[in-house]
Amino acid sequence: MSSTRIEQLVAEAQATFDRHPTEIEPDLDVNDAAILQLRKACRLLDGAETLRDAAYYTLVIEASFVAIERTIEFRLLERGTLQPDDLPGTHPGVYQEAGAAGVFPESIAADLADLWRDHRAKTYYRDGLASANRAEAMYTLAAELHAYVIGRSRQGHECRCAVSD
Predict the structure, then answer these.
(1) Do residues 71 and 41 lie in contact, with contact meaning Cβ atoms separated by under 8 Å?
(2) What is the reported pTM?
(3) Which of 126, 67, 118, 121 is nearest to 94 (CA)?
(4) How far apart are the C-alpha atoms of 161 and 114, rounded to whole Å?
(5) How many CB atoms within 10 Å of residue 36?
(6) For 113-165, how does the pLDDT look when each residue is reduced to its tens digit (9 = 90+)?
(7) Phi and psi (nearest 5°) for 71?
(8) CB 89 within 8 A of CB 162
(9) Measured in whole angstroms, how far is the alpha carbon of residue 83 from the centre of its chain?
(10) Sign, CA torsion 37/41/47/48
(11) Which candidate, 73, 85, 83, places its Cα nearest to that of 36?
(12) How many CB atoms lie within 10 A of CB 151?
């Protein structure tokens, strides 16, 4: 492998993203920004469940955090609190917006931001080790938060995961 080959692959990847997508992931071919975030959350939860069973705990933790964020963004978009171009640009920003908008109490939003800050980055980038119990705790939290939000949504029927059943 040479740097020339890597440059070529970067250019090919960029060109792929510049073209209109084909063979879109199931359930994501929607025009509504809120529904897109909801369905991404559903896919992330389904993926996390599969990865949990295969003992890919780092990925389960990462997918669970991202599923929580996509679920919150769904609710913020659905309620008209934010527009698609105004979504928070940071992970803690998602939790802060959720607390400010009343998706759940601000104390929970602060706890989620602390959880992300203290453990997600540590697990993913630094010396934190993923384990079965940590992965299970994060998956359970993400699934419960998803079901909570879906249960309060007028568009909950758009959910495509088994979590909210």
Answers:
(1) yes
(2) 0.90
(3) 67
(4) 27
(5) 20
(6) 999 988 887 777 767 889 999 999 999 999 999 999 999 999 999 999 864 44
(7) -65, -45
(8) no
(9) 18
(10) positive
(11) 73
(12) 10
